[in-house]
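Dear Dr. L.,

I hope this message finds you well. Following up on our conversation about the binding site, I have prepared a predicted three-dimensional model of the protein together with manganese (II) ion. For your records, I am including the exact sequence and ligand specification that went into the calculation, followed by the structure tokens. Please feel free to forward this to your student if that is useful.
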Amino acid sequence: MEGNNKTLGEFIIENQKEFKYSSGELSRLFNSIKLAAKVVSHKVNKAGLVDIVGGVGEKNVQGEDQQKLDVYANQVFIETIINRQIVCGITSEENDDFITVQGGDNGNNNKYILLMDPLDGSSNIDVNVSVGTIFSVYRRISPVGTPVILEDFLQPGINQVAAGYVIYGTSTMLVYTTGHGVNGFTLNPAIGSFYLSHPKIKFPVDGSIYSVNEGNYVRFPQGVKDYIKYCQQEEGDRPYTSRYIGSLVSDMHRNMLKGGIYMYPTSTKSRSGKLRLLYECNPMAFITEQAGGKASDGVTRIMEIEPTSLHERVPFYSGSINMVEKVEEFISKAQFSKY
Ligand code: AHG
Ligand code: MN
Ligand code: MN
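The resulting structure of the complex is given below.
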């Protein structure tokens, strides 16, 4: 950051012309996201000191244990965004159904919807390991001035107008795209501003890191097993390095900077994988592609999948283009073993 003092706010204003829709609205949305991110970041940094570690004893709609920080981050993002009247609807991993944001007498005049995973990798919070927030923005398809409908949220990822993530790591960063490349901003906590620290992030075309929960190996499709064995073979630049944090944001962030592939395959236990298409895979796929990488479900481009429900899951392979193409090759060779 030394020598680079452009803030996120300045950067957005400077690049407004790149955004084909109303830039004022997008700036307002980003202002809210960065405010919520700062609030969550501050809380994450105090984990262990304040009572936010551990579970709340409830399960979310997907049957997963909710952590205190899941619930807190969800509230902060939703309240910040609703209070500022910027979007007409929100979908979150932590809410069963989408939220209709009321506005005016006849519904809401805002054009955007927000989809988010407020706290990604939440099981890592108790052990002081990086977590994140993922967000995705679309234009509504229903008429302005009416309440949002389910179809507004079930758009394919190619319709995204913006996507990003916040990583609460050794420092807090916000990384985003509006379809014109990917830029990363680091929070200076003393000042409370995000500064451009990683301009024009590019996925290395090739990489040497593979990230997958290898404990599930025996349950993976044959093609994925074959690819993992390929990663471990001694030949040329292989064996590759295995790195898995268990927090999609952190694993993807590292791989994007260093070159690598993230995989969450189907398994005999979960036939659709684990990750959620709308608020995990699509935004990460948009960022990956904008950084020159590739994201697929093993066969199909993630962003071209037509969603059928809010919390649907898909297998996810995302990262350096040559690595993703390689795993697709293995999956296609072993197609009859694909779950
Ligand atoms: P979340 O905390 O939002 O539920 O997401 C957790 C996800 C993802 O971040 C991570 O990569 C993956 O789950 C880890 O799953 P496993 O523990 O099955 O490897
Ligand atoms: Mn997640
Ligand atoms: Mn989450």
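In brief: The pocket of manganese (II) ion (ligand 2) is lined by residues 117, 120, 248, 280 (CB under 6 Å).

With kind regards,
A. P.
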